[in-house]
Backbone:
């Protein structure tokens, strides 16, 4: 895994090169010589955060996708109102 460093100015001048570098590892983006941000590929980000598919992503899937969804049943009890 290669670590690449870009200054903010270099990033602004060549975003495509930074995105290509992020395919091989994290890209540190510096601001006045100090690390300020990190650019990662989406796959690296997901692996790092161990994210699962969100419900929004699941709902955006093509029709016919098999998604297990078994919500728990809710029991709502009523009680008389105390108007005293």
Residues:
């Amino acid at each position: 895994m290669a670590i690449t460093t870009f200054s903010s100015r270099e990033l602004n001048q060549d975003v495509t090169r930074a995105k290509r570098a992020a395919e091989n590892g994290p890209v540190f983006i510096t601001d006045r010589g100090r690390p300020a941000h990190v650019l990662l590929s989406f796959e690296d980000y997901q692996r790092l955060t161990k994210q699962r598919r969100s419900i929004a992503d699941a709902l955006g899937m093509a029709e016919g996708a098999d998604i297990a969804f078994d919500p728990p049943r809710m029991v709502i009890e009523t009680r008389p109102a105390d108007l005293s």
In short: The mean pLDDT is 85. Strands lie at 4-7, 27-31, 34-39. The radius of gyration is 24 Å. The longest strand covers residues 34-39.
